[in-house]
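look at this stuff:

>
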Amino acid sequence: LVALLTGCTARAEESYSGPAPRFPAPPRVATTAEELAAMKAAPDFAAFRALMSEDYEEIDHPTGVSYGRDANVAALERLMRSRDASCQLELLATLGDALMLSRRRVHARATGGGRFDVGEYEQEAYTVGEVDSRGRVCRHEVFGVDRLGDALVRFYERWAEQLPDGAERTRAVGIARALAAPNGPIDPDFFRIVYDPSFQCIDHRVFGTWSAGSAEEMARHYSLQLDLAPDFAG
């Protein structure tokens, strides 16, 4: 396969005599995400602080705590004092020029202090980040590793909030609503509203019991599940 692709590339280069193709520059948020990931992997705390805006806000949904730039820098400094500490940020998606969805992994072999000692640990979370017009991170919302659905909903909600009235904003709102449908208590009638009638679900598991050829069939799946387990939730 490598040889085939190499040969195809060489023939394409031979047959193409025009100017070099121009590709669009990566969105501002992607560049900032790369810088942020590098700072967390090998922290330069002054540069890390400069990468955030003065009014930076981080909202940690698992704990219900929010804090600003100084507290965020202090938290990274404390982490890096732990044994074999690491903080990795993996960019998963961007929307427009300002929004990013990432996976964050924090690990340390051990840490200790005057009030407590902690053994080896690893923590994962999903984050929805936002950058300002200068490419500085101005907002982060943190979601538990089991709440990817909530992070995706917030990702599109923030996108809709930034768009002017019109078709694109309506579409973003619709995507957020559709993504929210399987989260929490299940309402089969809601699926009939947010899913297009031609909706299809392909279940690749052995029995494929949740495969559906339409929104109506998917709603029936949920109705039958609720008959078996009234407290069924996504």
User: Anything to note?
Assistant: Helices lie at 2-15, 28-41, 45-50, 69-80, 148-162, 167-180, 188-194, 215-228. Residues 1-18, 20-25 have pLDDT under 50 and may be disordered. Residues 160 and 170 are 8 Å apart (CA to CA). The first strand starts at residue 52 and ends at 60.
